[in-house]
């Protein structure tokens, strides 16, 4: 959770402490930064239009901020989470001071996408005046992946998507939920295959996913699951389709 500090340093910025000494651009150091020195940044960056494709559900700070949502997942203690949160709040203030023109009228703390990639969204929005956009929409609508997803959904009777873990975070910009929303807009049923089904997984139903099927049928360690991925996904898909056939037979 460095708030995009590393990216800005890579582009020529320097992070200075109260004594004018340079500080490494890592999350735990943000609270010590007193000034962002921007004179080393290439002036041509001002004339570049930057589009950042990220998760718009990720915010820089607050209850849904990156430190509180992702910190515990990465092993941060409650005390470390609060320290990271305070550092990011301070960092947003420094960004607004260092880049007043780009940061003007931008909500760096809780604006959509500001917390993408550990706060990279906020750093680039302020430092480069970047426009933050949904990564999924950018990829699909720009046709960068070579797949016309909407056309394929329109031709399908059933949409099957997948994710390593389906839980309360899945509706917050994860690919299966975005697929589900597009499929639901087209009136298509959706099944998600999941390596694990975690807390709050029922939230995906409101995102357009009708049912979730676990891929792992029995307890196994990660290396085994990875080595058997093709087999496990195939078996889970067959189980899901057999349930559909059973439902159709009951309804007939």
Helix content: 40-55%
* Shape by Cα distribution: elongated
Q: What is the CATH superfamily label of the largest domain?
A: Glycerate kinase, domain 2
CATH class of the largest domain: Alpha Beta
SSE sequence, one letter per element: HEEEHHHHEHHEHEEHH
Number of domains: 2
- pLDDT < 50 runs, ≥5 residues: none
CATH architecture of the largest domain: Alpha-Beta Complex
In DSSP terms (H or I, runs of 4 or more residues), the helix count works out at: 10
- Radius of gyration (CA) equals 22 Å
Q: How are the strands ordered across the major sheet?
A: 5-6-7
| CATH level-3 fold name of the largest domain | Glycerate kinase, domain 2
Report how far the terminal alpha carbons are from each other: 54 Å
Instruction: Tell me the major beta sheet.
Output: 3 strands, parallel
Strand content: 5-15%
Structural class: alpha/beta
Structure summary, number of beta strands:
7
Structure notes:
With about 250 residues, this protein is of the alpha/beta class. Strand 5, helix 8 and strand 6 form a beta-alpha-beta unit. Helices cover about 40% and strands about 15% of the residues. The longest helix is centred in the last third of the chain and has 23 residues, at about 230-250. The protein has helices at about 5-10, 65-70, 80-100, 100-105, 115-130, 135-140, 150-155, 175-185, 220-225, 230-250, and strands at about 15, 35, 50-55, 130-135, 160-165, 190-195, 210-215. The protein folds into two domains: about 5-135, Alpha-Beta Complex (Glycerate kinase, domain 2); about 150-250, Glycerate kinase, domain 1 (Rossmann fold). Helix 3 runs parallel beside helix 5. It starts with a helix and ends with a helix. It contains ten helices and seven strands. The chain has a three-stranded parallel β-sheet. A two-stranded antiparallel ribbon has the order 1-2. Keywords: Kinase, Transferase. This is Glycerate kinase. Its EC number is 2.7.1.31. Belongs to the glycerate kinase type-1 family. One of its GO terms (biological process) is organic acid phosphorylation.
């Amino acid at each position: 959770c460095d708030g995009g500090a590393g990216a800005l340093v890579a582009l020529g910025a320097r992070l200075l402490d109260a004594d004018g000494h340079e500080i490494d651009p890592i999350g735990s150091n943000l609270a010590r930064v007193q000034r962002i020195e921007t004179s080393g940044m290439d002036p041509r960056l001002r004339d570049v239009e930057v589009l950042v494709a990220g998760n718009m559900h990720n915010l820089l700070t607050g209850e849904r901020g990156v430190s509180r949502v992702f910190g515990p997942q990465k092993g941060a203690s409650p005390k470390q989470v609060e320290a990271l949160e305070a550092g990011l709040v301070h960092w947003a203030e420094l960004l607004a001071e260092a880049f007043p023109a780009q940061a003007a009228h931008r909500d760096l703390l809780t604006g959509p996408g500001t917390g993408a990639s550990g706060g990279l969204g906020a750093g680039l929005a302020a430092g480069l005046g970047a426009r933050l956009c949904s990564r999924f929409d950018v990829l699909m609508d720009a046709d960068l992946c070579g797949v016309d997803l909407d056309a394929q959904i329109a031709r399908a009777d059933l949409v099957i998507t997948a994710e390593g873990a389906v839980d309360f975070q899945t509706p917050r910009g994860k690919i299966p939920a975005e697929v589900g929303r597009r499929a639901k807009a087209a009136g298509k049923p959706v099944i998600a295959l999941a390596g694990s089904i975690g807390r709050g997984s029922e939230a995906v139903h409101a995102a357009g996913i009708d049912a979730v099927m676990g891929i792992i049928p029995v307890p196994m360690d990660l290396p085994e699951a990875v080595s058997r991925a093709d087999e496990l996904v195939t078996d889970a898909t067959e189980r899901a389709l057999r349930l559909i056939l059973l439902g159709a037979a009951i309804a007939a």
